[in-house]
Amino acid sequence: MGKLIYGGTTEIGFEDRVLAHLQIVIGLKLRRKEGFFFSWRDEQSVGDGRSAIWIDPAVPLLFRYSGGRQPRINKAWLEQLTLSSNSSQGLQLTEEIGALGADEVDADAPPGK
Questions:
Q1: How many whole angstroms separate alpha carbon 32 and alpha carbon 47?
Q2: 53 CB neighbour count, 10 Å cutoff
Q3: Residue 8, CA distances (Å) to 12, 34, 60 in order
Q4: Does the keyword Ligase apply (predicted)?
């Protein structure tokens, strides 16, 4: 399990595949210097509720992966996450959608492959 480390102190655990999709969506927002809320459902071990943080371009952010290989990217899921990031509620992590396989791209492959 990888971690999103926010502000050097807040660590949130996510599977590497989830983390890779979040990195792309969050990176797009921060590149435009946009702040936004990011929310997710907590694991049962911490109460099975929801958490949210304000992501701000001025706060350091680290994506730490547990594995050495870049996960394949699901374009349909990425599009859904991107749309939610532009909503008034901010980026909401949802379950992965779309057919696996044909809709995936290798994040290390050149564009168009």
A1: 34
A2: 17
A3: 11, 20, 7
A4: yes
At residue 72, what is the residue type?
R
Are 78 and 21 within 8 A, CB to CB? yes
Helix (H) or strand (E) holding 11: strand 10-14
Q: What is the pLDDT of residues 62-78, one digit of tens each?
A: 999 999 898 999 999 99
Q: Where are the beta strands (DSSP E) in 35-88?
A: 36-41, 50-55, 61-64, 72-74
The pTM of this model reads 0.83
The total of other beta-carbon atoms located within 10 Å of residue 57's CB is 12
CB contact at 8 A, 81 and 91: yes
